[in-house]
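hey can u check if this looks right to u? its 240 residues, i copy pasted from the old doc so theres a chance i mangled smth
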Amino acid sequence: MTCRLYIDDALIPGTSIELPADQAHYLRSVMRFTTGDPVILFNGSGGEYHAEIQSLSKGNATLAVTSFSEVNREMACRIHIAQAACRSEKIDSIVQKGTELGAASFHIMRSERSSLKLDGAKLSKRMLRWQKIIIEAAEQSQRTIVPTISWHEKLSSTPACGLCYTLHPASETSWGHEKPNMLAADEITLAIGPEGGWSDRDIETLKAGGFTNLTFGPRVMRTETAAPALLAAIQSLLES
């Protein structure tokens, strides 16, 4: 069984690295690996590194980095998810599934109807949790890049990269109409509303920031469904 681990450091073939205790525990107690077993490493800068376990004990592991592979499993178009703050467990799902489906970054922002309020130590703790979920999803899905995540207290500070869309069921701009534009885009930002939907003020704020309303069919999706559904649709469109 192939095991992939994210290493937040430079990786150089011909050198050895020591793993953090949690990753050593994972290899020994979860994967049941032993000395000599192969491991794939990546650090988010692209490509993968092949390594071999030199030593492995409870809480300690040393790997020899043997070679580098210039592989690329990223989407040709960078997709940024601007998600209105909603219940924390829903954001857990959004960043996990979004990472698996190829999102380049996540921006969690407060909106008029957002149910989640975070600051100080609570925000720091939650950001660490979301980053951990993203890393684990990147490891599992064989990503070579690890998406970033950021928190924005104001909706007006939402980054607008490339083509920018606000998912809205009442929009006259349809998914079908925008397909040619998406096919030609290098970057797309998708703004997804909270459980209660966007307010009129939210829509105006996003419009002033360069976002265009977009409808994705006749059905209204839950906030945690929208981003994965759009990512899968765009991936299918780009790779068809």
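The chain has two domains: 4-69, 78-239.
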